[in-house]
């Protein structure tokens, strides 16, 4: 998201307010996962109300703050991070927007000020014993008698009904109408005769939900919202109204911080749990997933602001937010381990006069938090119901391109669609043919694509990583074989950061016009990525250098005419330009996993001139590798989107058991899961692409987060695409298998998922 100075000022203002106004005891209760009572909520409500901030989403005419979604997001995040209680949603965020949109003038003037100042506490009377996910099957009846409705029935799971003054309630007013019709939206005074409650004790031992019995409760007609029998429309409006609070990023970050601190203090096997390799891996994965969700949230907000939303945003964020919060709570209870056995419900009702909890008391309280949080994948629409909604789209969230990026994307897509052969019908040249000597490479040069990221003084266009990612995404979608990633991107970015010598300049100019396409020979005998120039040494001999050693699995290494070889010399790790035909250089290999050639290269007393040493690889190589990783992630995004599209089309067309496969929920949910993992990977890739490439620690952390997330998404999407194509998925004749193999190849290039999870952890702790 672009840096917005106004938003930064606003964030500072919110922080200052929280520092000054959030009572310390309330903060402690929230941070320690203690149960909040009515007084706690009301106290915070009053403080916010006095500041004019209790109703961020309300228009100013009703006394609201009328903030943009971005501001609300900042406010929610800062409040959660500081340990402020969440405001109770039923009045402020649920019934109030419905009253504003559909209520009578009297309802607006009577109820809205009382919601704003906290005078009335509201509860939500939707669910019934026989009506849960299928809410329209509700059976509570409201009969019209004169100027009143007489309501009879039972509501259940009603949160905080014991505190409530008012309930907004769905009741059937026309029993003969079809399910969603004949329902009305009524506002019921909880003190009315005939209203009674039974508290329901939950798993953690708390009592926040209730059964509500309605026995001939008389409700004045003035408490009917909008028109009779049209309540379903208003109920749906309510559910769709608050679209962007669902990810609860602030809370996730706060709990993650709590988890990190607690795991550092909890001793297991004689060391902090945070240092246990299995637990540390889990922690890092949660950190990466939290970062991904934060970016997905911002991306969807930005799209909504531009009017480009597609309607499933709330479901995507609710599902991802619930899943993440529950995973963090699981890790928290696992941090407690055997201390969890001592849990008692009273652990969530501490007397702070006796002082704060010890670490052991904190650990003992964890099961309460963990068990309580099971609710969030059930209320407000269960995970399964959210996936039903997401699957209806099963479309990726289109990329957020600038105008220039869109133009580039269109031009590349047009060329590849018209000219580039489908993977299964591709005739591949011999493995030792120059991979850049194809008509397409020529065309890429003519279109200016080869010089896109190269310096202007070498005939390039000096474009940044976002443009290169636009290109790579299209190259992924069409499974381009030419060595754009290995040569143009990796070597181009590396060379442009080398000392400005004649050889470097000539090479870059050749790369921009398509006559040169060097590839990097870097990985040593174990074929893994490391920055130490493994496997090859360089010694000064006379005027030149002598290279000895082995480089493994060099992409496009069989056909490339020029190699950039990293080698350890007296000064560090040098970068050497070596012609492929040089005496003492031999290559072995052939067409590999994804049809492109991979070579093992042996250098035996290979003599090169002094000028072959282009400079020290070090920082330049680290930066070029990170940029290429992000480019590879973009390529993977293009491939994953192609797989998702192909799989969606296949299950819509293929019929079994008398219906399209897409009619089966098991298939729909698989598509939804594919989409969700693609979107998380997309968020991290674009965050990395748009970050400052000269900020080395940030760049490295984001590139590794993106590479790990893309690796995991690629694995899942690849496997599910094969699975959902059935036997067809196993053939070489479809593009699916070719896409899957390229995804595997990307996974093992410049560090695999394991490598990048470790690297992310190291960089995040540095
Ligand atoms: C702590 C808590 C607080 C709540 N607060 C309130 C409140 O204040 N007011 C209120 O009105 N309600 C409240 N609810 C109720 C909540 O909205 C419902 O529990 C929820 O809608 C699910 O309904 P159900 O419990 O009847 O489950 P069911 O609908 O019976 O679902 C059971 C399981 O079947 C799955 N399932 C159901 N339908 C489908 C489908 N079509 N496809 C695939 N899977 C399906 C569900 O995902 C779930 O896993 C609360 C619930 C909880 C747990």
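^ Assign residues to that structure.
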């Amino acid at each position: 998201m672009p840096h917005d100075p106004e938003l930064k000022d606003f964030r500072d203002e919110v922080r200052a307010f929280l520092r000054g106004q959030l009572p310390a005891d309330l903060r402690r209760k929230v941070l320690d996962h203690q149960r909040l009572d009515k007084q706690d909520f009301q106290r915070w409500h009053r403080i916010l109300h006095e500041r004019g901030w209790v109703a961020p989403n309300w228009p100013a005419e009703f006394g609201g703050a009328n903030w943009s979604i971005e501001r609300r997001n900042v406010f929610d995040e800062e409040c959660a991070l500081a340990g402020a209680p969440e405001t109770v949603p039923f009045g402020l965020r649920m019934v109030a927007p419905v009253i504003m949109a559909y209520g009578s003038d009297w309802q607006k003037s009577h109820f809205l000020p009382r919601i704003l100042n906290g005078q009335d506490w509201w509860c939500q009377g939707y669910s019934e014993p026989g009506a849960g996910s299928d809410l329209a099957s509700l059976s509570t009846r409201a009969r019209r008698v004169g100027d009143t409705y007489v309501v009879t029935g039972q509501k259940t799971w009603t949160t905080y009904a014991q505190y409530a003054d008012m309930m907004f309630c769905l009741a059937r007013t026309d029993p003969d109408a079809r399910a969603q019709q004949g329902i009305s939206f009524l506002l019921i005074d909880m003190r009315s005769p005939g209203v009674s409650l039974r508290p329901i004790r939950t798993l953690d031992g708390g009592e926040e939900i209730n059964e509500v019995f309605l026995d001939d409760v008389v409700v004045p007609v003035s408490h009917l919202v909008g028109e009779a029998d049209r309540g379903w429309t208003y109920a749906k409006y309510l559910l769709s109204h608050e679209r962007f609070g669902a990810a609860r990023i602030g809370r996730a970050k706060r709990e993650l911080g709590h988890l990190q601190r607690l795991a550092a203090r909890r001793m297991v096997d004689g060391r902090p749990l945070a240092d246990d390799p299995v637990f540390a891996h889990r922690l890092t994965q949660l950190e990466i997933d939290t970062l991904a969700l934060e970016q997905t949230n911002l991306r969807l907000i930005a799209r909504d602001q531009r009017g480009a939303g597609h309607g499933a945003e709330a479901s995507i964020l609710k599902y991802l937010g619930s899943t993440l919060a529950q995973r963090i709570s699981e890790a928290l209870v696992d941090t407690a381990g055997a201390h969890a056995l001592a849990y008692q419900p009273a652990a969530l009702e501490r007397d702070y006069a006796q002082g704060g909890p010890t670490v052991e008391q904190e650990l003992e309280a964890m099961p309460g938090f963990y068990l309580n949080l099971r609710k969030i994948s059930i209320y407000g629409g269960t995970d399964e119901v959210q996936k039903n909604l997401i699957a209806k789209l099963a479309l990726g969230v289109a990329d957020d391109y600038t105008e220039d990026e869109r133009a580039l994307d269109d031009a590349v897509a047009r060329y590849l669609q018209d000219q580039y052969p489908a993977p299964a019908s591709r005739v591949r040249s011999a493995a030792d043919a120059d991979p850049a000597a194809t008509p397409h490479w020529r065309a890429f040069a003519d279109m200016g694509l080869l010089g896109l990221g190269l310096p202007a003084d070498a005939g390039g266009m000096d474009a940044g990583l976002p443009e290169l990612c636009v290109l790579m995404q299209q190259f992924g979608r069409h499974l381009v074989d030419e060595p754009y990633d290995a040569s143009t991107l990796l070597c181009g970015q590396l060379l442009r950061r080398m000392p400005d010598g004649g050889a470097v300049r000539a090479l870059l100019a050749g790369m921009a016009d398509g006559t040169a396409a060097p590839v990097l020979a870097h990985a040593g005998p174990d074929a893994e990525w490391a920055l130490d120039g493994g496997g090859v040494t360089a010694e000064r001999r006379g005027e030149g250098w002598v290279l000895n050693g082995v480089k493994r699995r060099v992409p496009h290494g069989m056909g490339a005419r020029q190699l950039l070889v990293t080698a350890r010399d007296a000064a560090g790790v040098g970068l050497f330009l070596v012609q492929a035909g040089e005496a003492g250089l031999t290559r072995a290999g052939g067409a590999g996993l994804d049809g492109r050639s991979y070579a093992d290269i042996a250098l035996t007393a290979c003599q090169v001139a002094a000028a072959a040493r282009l400079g020290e690889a070090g920082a330049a190589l680290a930066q070029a590798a990170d940029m290429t990783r992000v480019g590879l992630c973009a390529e993977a995004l293009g491939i994953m989107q192609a797989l998702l599209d192909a799989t969606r089309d296949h299950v819509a067309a293929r019929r079994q058991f008398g219906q399209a496969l897409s009619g089966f929920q098991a298939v729909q949910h698989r598509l939804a899961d594919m989409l969700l993992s693609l979107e998380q990977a997309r968020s991290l890739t674009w965050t990395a692409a748009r970050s400052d490439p000269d900020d080395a620690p940030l760049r490295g952390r984001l590139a590794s987060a993106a590479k790990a997330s893309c690796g995991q998404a690629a694995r899942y999407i690849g496997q599910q695409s094969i699975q959902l194509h059935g036997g067809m998925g196993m053939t070489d004749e479809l593009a699916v298998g070719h896409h899957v193999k390229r995804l595997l190849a990307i996974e093992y290039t410049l560090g695999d998922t394991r490598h990048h999870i470790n690297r992310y952890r190291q960089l995040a702790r540095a």
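The chain has a mean pLDDT of 94.
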